[in-house]
Amino acid sequence: MAKTDAFSTASALEIILSRNGSAVLYMAHGGTNFGFYNGVNVQESESNYLADLTSYDYDAPISESGYVDGAKFKALRSVIAINLLTKAIESDNPISMEVVGQMFGFLLYTS
After folding, report:
1. Are the C-beta atoms of 82 and 15 separated by less than 8 Å?
2. CA quadruple 13, 14, 17, 19: dihedral positive or negative?
3. What is the pLDDT confidence band of residue 12, given thresholds at 50, 70 and 90?
4. How far apart are CA 12 and CA 33, in angstroms?
5. Burial 26-41 (b: 16+ CB within 10 A, else e)
6. What distance in Å separates the CA atoms of residue 74 and residue 65, rounded to the nearest whole number?
């Protein structure tokens, strides 16, 4: 299993973002079992099956159980927070992404 330390991972992301680059955290969340479903390989009949382990973590910043207190998560979150251009927009009613000039991604609504 590949592992990288929090500092080197965050440093690499900082370099990419400081150059206005894009990055993908391939395994930001460990595990692939949505809702903790398991997998199985059915053979000739349904009674003859083999378990299929589909959980892998690969040292993800967010563990399969959702743990976000690790050093890698905190380091990456810090780098992302520093490099994000955020601006608060106040409105009495929710507004669309297009109205605020955001064509993709996410908006955070709070009240």
Report:
1. no
2. negative
3. very high
4. 28
5. ebeebbeeeeeeeeee
6. 16
For 23-66, what is each residue's pLDDT tens digit?
Answer: 888 777 776 655 555 666 677 777 777 766 666 666 888 887 78
Beta-ladder partners of 42 = 49
What distance in Å separates the CA atoms of residue 25 and residue 66, rounded to the nearest whole number?
Answer: 16
Residue found under tokens 């003859």: 48
Q: What is the CA radius of gyration of the chain?
A: 20
What is the sign, positive or negative, of the torsion defined by CA atoms of 10, 11, 16, 18?
positive
Cα angle: 61, vertex 83, 68; to 5 degrees: 20
> Concatenated DSSP letters for the chain?
-----HHHHHHHHHHHHHTT-----TTSB----GGG--EEEE-SSTTSEEEE-----TT-SB-TT----SHHHHHHHHHHHHH--------SS---TGGGT--SS------
